[in-house]
From TrEMBL:
Gene3D superfamilies xrefs: MetI-like
Protein's UniProt name: ABC transporter permease
UniProt topology in membrane: Multi-pass membrane protein
Pfam families: BPD_transp_1 (PF00528), BPD_transp_1_N (PF19300)
Compartments in which it is found: Cell membrane
Keyword entries, A-Z: Cell membrane, Membrane, Transmembrane, Transmembrane helix, Transport
Cited SUPFAM superfamilies: MetI-like (SSF161098)
Gene Ontology BP annotations: transmembrane transport
Organism (species): Rhizobium lentis
Length: 314
């Protein structure tokens, strides 16, 4: 087990290094001069040149990367061009808002969709199976932004049950904070349920065809015991992997939901920074998203042996 964990950790290190290089290179491909942007249109050439020296933009790309990576390891990712705020605290605070929505949404979607997929496999080709698979297919076909707008129209404007726009932190006001989170979380839950139902159904069907399931039934065990005590644990492994992928994807792709519901999360910060050409913040957001994706998948790999002990043996 220790060897398995060490192998996965060692595999994550070059991935993180590659992510850092890629993020740095992508930012350098964006057109425009950060020094000229910071000083404004009225800046003189000598002022721009002095600012480039101050920002280290006069050095080679390799030197710039070494300086940036060294500062990053110390927690210094520069300051925002727009408001001068330190990038790391800004990105971290916005990331917590996004993570709050995404983690809750994935947990709720998993709790609802995984048992539904198992039941669909158990009732294969029956009315229950057809209804669940059909529902999952419809949910997968609905774009998240359109679904979010529909929920806003129904629960916010027509019924008036939930706030339409804005955000209140749960830490500031628990009751109001929960109300503002309901619609974005509901949107993500409904959409991601489609993926999880289909994945849980497919993996359960594969397990139900194995010999040990036939043996368990031959011993006289009830169908519920066969399904939940013997089939579910082995069937959950592939679904667990998909849950990790969904979590990582949502952390990086929640900008649409945050824009629809005007939530000040990491995705909204990234969109605003792109329009403002705030290069240090864009760089920090991209790095944070990429690292979170790598770390989520690392955790998924480390926990996978809980569902399939054969992985450690390999």
């Amino acid at each position: 087990m220790i060897r398995f964990i060490l192998n996965r950790l060692l595999m994550a290190l070059p991935t993180i290094a590659l992510v850092a290089v890629t993020v740095f290179a992508l930012i350098r491909l964006i057109p425009g001069d950060p020094a000229a942007l910071m000083l404004g249109d009225m800046a003189q050439p000598d002022q721009v040149a002095a600012m480039r020296i101050e920002l280290g933009l006069d050095k080679s790309i390799i030197q710039q990367f070494v300086i940036w990576a060294g500062n990053g390891l110390q927690g210094d990712f520069g300051r925002s061009i727009v408001n001068g705020e330190a990038v790391l605290p800004l990105v971290a605070s916005r990331f917590l808002v996004s993570a709050e929505i995404v983690v809750i949404a994935v947990l709720l979607a998993s709790v609802i969709a995984v048992p539904a997929g198992v039941i669909a496999a158990w009732r294969q080709n029956g009315l229950t199976d057809l209804a669940l698979v059909g529902t999952a297919t419809v949910l997968l076909s609905i774009p998240t932004f359109w679904l979010g707008l529909l929920l806003l129209l129904l629960f916010g404007l027509k019924l008036g049950w939930l706030p339409v726009l804005g955000y209140v932190s749960v830490g500031d006001n628990i009751a109001s904070g929960i109300l503002y989170l309901v619609l974005p979380i509901m949107t993500l839950v409904i959409h991601e349920m489609g993926v999880l139902i289909r994945m849980a159904r497919a993996s359960t069907l594969e397990v139900l065809r194995l010999d040990y399931i036939t043996h368990a039934r031959a011993k006289g065990l009830s169908e519920s015991a066969v399904l939940w005590r013997h089939a579910f644990k082995n069937a959950f492994g592939p679904t667990w992997t998909v849950i990790g992928l969904i979590l990582g994807n949502l952390l990086g792709g929640i900008a649409v939901i945050e824009t629809v519901f005007t939530i000040p999360g990491l995705g909204r910060l990234m969109v605003d920074s792109i329009f403002a050409r705030d290069y240090p913040v864009i760089q920090g957001c991209l790095l944070f998203v990429a690292l979170s994706y790598v770390l989520v998948n690392l955790v998924v790999d480390l926990l996978y042996p809980l569902f399939d002990p054969r992985v450690v043996a390999e």
